[in-house]
């Protein structure tokens, strides 16, 4: 992460964009300079005739095309990156207050979802494991809450939460995770990935610039079986 909260990939794309624009401007100015020099050399001793030659017209058209393409490419790239530039996915996302998040989870019996950051926030008061299951040590949990990346670790589908089973269930291939995002069933190779979080005052800040890999199969820190029928048939 940079001081502006941009991811490394975003900074790289911006640098490439600036390089392309500078190259286009340099190329255009070079063509314009060459066109002017050619015009001066072609000036007759008598009064010049204000006629644009075919070559000059083609040069000017090429310069205009390059400048237009650079402008369109630049604005298009900025538009594509705008969510990240203004603090979207790939940066630190404010998720709300701890009290509001817990109140929503307990009142609705479902995780708190933050679309801007593509993550859920769940309550967690389980027993820490080791390695990837050492949630406190990985700084992915604090004050009884933990963020989970919405992406299924199998093939990347978005994983909804099933109210009936109280598990996360992938609609693509049937992978299932308990309320802590730990693997239970299906083809997923591990549990759901996580993000680091910090709490400033009462505000939860989730850092989506880096993914913490989910715990391995067999991890079960909350021992929570399915609470009802599955929303997605077992894969």
What does this structure look like?
This protein is α+β, with helices and mostly antiparallel strands and about 240 residues long. It folds into 2 domains: about 10-85; about 90-210, Rieske [2Fe-2S] iron-sulphur domain (Rieske Iron-sulfur Protein, 3-layer Sandwich), CATH 2.102.10.10. About 35% of the residues lie in helices and about 20% in strands. The chain contains 3 helices and 10 strands, in the order H-H-E-H-E-E-E-E-E-E-E-E-E. It has helices at about 10-40, 55-85, 100-110, and strands at about 90-95, 110-115, 120-125, 145-150, 160, 165-170, 175, 185, 195-200, 205-210. It has a 4-stranded antiparallel sheet, with no helix packed on it. Helix 1 runs antiparallel to helix 2. The radius of gyration is 28 Å and the shape is elongated.
Describe the structure using short key phrases.
235 residues; alpha+beta; Rieske Iron-sulfur Protein; 2 domains; 4-stranded antiparallel beta sheet; 3-stranded antiparallel beta sheet; 3 helices; disordered N terminus
H/E series, N to C?
HHEHEEEEEEEEE
Assess the beta-strand content as a share of residues. 15-25%
Our Rg estimate from Cα atoms comes to: 28 Å
- Give the integer mean of the pLDDT values: 83
Estimate percent helicity.
25-40%
What is the CATH architecture annotation of the largest domain? 3-layer Sandwich
Quote the distance from N terminus to C terminus: 38 Å
CATH superfamily of the largest domain: Rieske [2Fe-2S] iron-sulphur domain
Low-confidence spans: 1-5
Structural class by secondary-structure content: alpha+beta
**Major sheet: size, sense and barrel closure?**
4 strands, antiparallel
How many domains? The number is: 2
Largest beta sheet: strand ordering: 5-6-7-8
């Amino acid at each position: 992460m940079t001081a502006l909260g941009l991811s490394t990939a975003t900074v790289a794309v911006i640098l490439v964009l600036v390089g392309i624009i500078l190259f286009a401007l340099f190329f255009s100015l070079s063509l314009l300079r060459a066109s002017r020099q050619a015009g001066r050399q072609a000036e007759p001793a008598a009064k010049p005739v204000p006629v644009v030659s075919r070559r000059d017209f083609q040069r000017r058209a090429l310069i205009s095309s390059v400048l237009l393409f650079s402008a369109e490419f630049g604005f298009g790239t900025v538009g594509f990156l705008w969510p990240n530039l203004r603090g979207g996915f790939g940066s630190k996302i404010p998720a709300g207050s701890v009290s509001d998040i817990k109140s929503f989870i307990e009142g609705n019996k479902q995780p708190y979802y933050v679309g801007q950051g593509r993550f859920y926030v769940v309550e967690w008061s389980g027993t820490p494991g080791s390695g990837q299951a050492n949630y406190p040590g990985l700084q992915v949990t604090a004050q009884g809450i933990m963020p989970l990346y919405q992406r299924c670790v199998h093939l990347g589908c978005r994983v909804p939460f099933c109210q009936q089973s109280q598990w996360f269930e992938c609609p693509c291939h049937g992978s299932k995770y308990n309320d802590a995002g730990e693997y239970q069933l299906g083809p997923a190779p591990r549990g759901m990935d996580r993000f680091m979080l910090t709490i400033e005052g009462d505000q939860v800040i989730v850092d989506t610039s880096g993914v913490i890999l989910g715990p391995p199969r067999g991890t079960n820190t909350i021992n929570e079986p399915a609470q009802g029928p599955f929303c997605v048939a077992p894969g």
